[in-house]
Structures are given as C-alpha cells and as structure tokens.
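Hi R.,

Here's the chain you asked about this morning:
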Amino acid sequence: MAAPENTPPTSTPAANDEGSKARQMLGMKGAAAGETNLWKIRLQLMKPITWIPLIWGVVCGAASSGHFDWTLENVLKSAACMLLSGPLLTGYTQTINDYYDREIDAINEPYRPIPSGAISEKQVIAQVIVLLLGGWALAYGLDQWAGHDFPTIFVTALVGTFIAFIYSAPPLKLKQNGWLGNYALGASYIALPWWAGQALFGTLTPTVMVVTLIYSLAGLGIAIVNDFKSVEGDRALGLKSLPVMFGVTGAAWICVVMIDTFQFGIAGYLLTLSENLYASILALLVIPQIVFQDMYFLRNPLENDVKYQASAQPFLVLGMLVAGLAMGHAGI
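And here is the predicted structure, written out as tokens:
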C-alpha cells in the first residue's frame, strides 16, 4: 500500500548522524546538515552515487565494441572515459541541476548546499564551468588517443551536456515534463556513456545507437524513481513529474512496467541475433527485480525508493553488461 500523496517532506537530519553524513557526501536522500568544508560541499553537489551507472555504461560500451583487450593502455583509456562520464560530466549535470532546483530543494531538502547557504551561487557557477570545460577537454583528448577522424566522443559529450542544461534550465527545463524529462535522463544514463565506451574501442554504429536509445526507455523507469523524493516541491512549483500527474501509486506502476518491459524487449532482440544464452540470462535477471518491486517499491515508493534502488538496480546494470557482451559477440 502506497503512502498518502500528501506525506510531508523528510525533515532535516541531525548533523551528528554519521550515516546521514555519509549519505550527504554521496548525494543521497536523508543527508546531514551543517557541513562547512567547502570541498566536501562541492563533492556533495556532484552526487557521487549517481556516477556509478554512467561509469558502468562505459564498461557496457567497451564490451559491445567487441574490441576491448586487457592491456594497460586500454585500462587507462577506460579509466579516463569513466572519469569523463562520471565525476566530470555527471558532476556537471548534478551541480547545474542543484543550481536550478534551489527553490524546489528549499521545500524538499532544505539541508542541500545551495538552499542552506553552505555555498554561494557564484561558487556553484564556477564549479559548473570547471567541470564542463574539463569534460570537453578530456572528451577531445580521448578522440585523439583513439585516433578518430571524426571527434565522436567529443560530439557525444557536447550532446550530453546540452541535454543536461535544457533538462534543468529554463525556458525548456525538460524536467517540467515527466515523460520527456525522464527519458532524457534515462538516455543520458544508459545510451550516452555506452556510445562513448563503444566509440573508444570500436565503431559507434547506427544499430548500437538505436538499440541503446530503446534500452534507455528502461532507464526512463529508473529516472521516475528519483521523482518521488521531490513530489511535494514539484507539486508546489507546478512541475509535471509523473508522480504529480498520475499520483504516487500510478507513477510507481508506470516505473516498474517501463523497467521490466524494455529489458525483456532487449532480451527478445538478442534472440533475433541468435544470442540465446545471453538473452536467457538477461531475462532471468529481470525476475529478482520484479520481486523487489513487489516487496518494496509498489508497497510504499515514498519510503522505499532508496531501498528498492539498492536491491534491484544491480540486476539492471548486470543485464546491461550481458546485453553489451551479446552485441559485441554478434558484431553489430
């Protein structure tokens, strides 16, 4: 049974709660207030917990290229691409999102760095610029390292940072539209780092681009999970997130159906490539996700969103790697 939709936002946690301090540093819900170290505050804005799917996406792209070998150079290339996708460009995305969400955060999470006054807006803008330029420079350098005639990784980085900007910033502010905003987020978490990893070690083909964009519809479901923690602020400011439009229970069902349906769809696609073993493994990985959806998320998405992500998301990311290995094996 879902909690009432008018559940008040979580109160500010105590500053001396060690668990809350750890959640603060990672950028998770339920953070502590009162941090004064500027570098820790900057790290909190970058939300390190959100880097993990992007870093994993690079791994999946490298696997689907079919050309990754365990050499020192390739490991260093992978590490650089992970730095690009995670700390630099995801850090940029999260920082600029916090900047434009400062009014919403003042309602939902007033202990966040900007609404709490722990960091000035000028300092936040400077951080955005450094992360953005650092990401672009590294993307260009990776293209040179890979010997690309066309700067595929740099262009992918440009596309990703543009999407991140219009996702958060007016006048477009894609996150105001639950469907469009969540798909932009899902594609940024699955398709874009996959493209970077694929291009770094192989050739980014139209087929891979289309398949990963379809896979990103499962990522749309994951993105919806993030909307439940800010439903009160979204409603107050007129943002049309899916929990606001369809209610908490309706949005929870949309979320799980998107996640499961498109993973099964990718498994079906692998069958058409005669990658039957990989398809079976991917389909089997969806089953524990369904169990956790029933145990946690559908019963109380407002309280169990973090617990659900921690228990179910590992099976989603393992499924992505299985799909990447299958595509590399098939040579698409």
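One quick note: The domain at 30-330 is CATH 1.10.600 (Farnesyl Diphosphate Synthase).

Cheers,
M.
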